Amino acid sequence: MYEVVLTPEALKTYRRAEVPLARKLNRCFESLSSDPRSHPNIKRLTGALRGRWRYRLGNWRVLYRISEERREVVVLLIAHRKAAYE
Fold first, then answer.
1. What are 54-77's pLDDT values in tens digits?
2. pTM, whole model, 2 decimals?
């Protein structure tokens, strides 16, 4: 199992999320804690975001990195897809 850790920016977005999105995020975090690499909505990012992963939640994206040494999934950003890759 991995521990899911949110950065302050991601935590702020999570706390402000409306109930339907918050429920989806909770399921996302449960999925990431068990296996952060294999799910149909997970993709390894390339280019400037290399080394990071994304979990797709409809029009929202959860960008994260995996720390194997600490067995952590660090959620860097929760954003609408239009703003997620800027």
1. 999 999 999 999 999 999 999 999
2. 0.93
- Provide the residue range defining the domain that includes 23: 3-84
Task: Domain count for the chain, please give it.
Answer: 1
How far apart are alpha carbons 4 and 22 in whole angstroms?
15
| Exposed / middle / buried, residue 63 (Cβ in 10 Å: 0-12, 13-18, 19+) | buried
Tell me the CATH number at 50: 3.30.2310.20
Cα distances from 64 to residues 50, 72, in angstroms, run: 11, 10
Q: Which two tokens stand for residue 52?
A: 């990071």
SS3 sequence, the chain?
Answer: CCEEEECHHHHHHHHHCCHHHHHHHHHHHHHHHHCCCCCCCEEECCHHHCCCEEEEECCEEEEEEEECCCCEEEEEEEEEHHHHCC
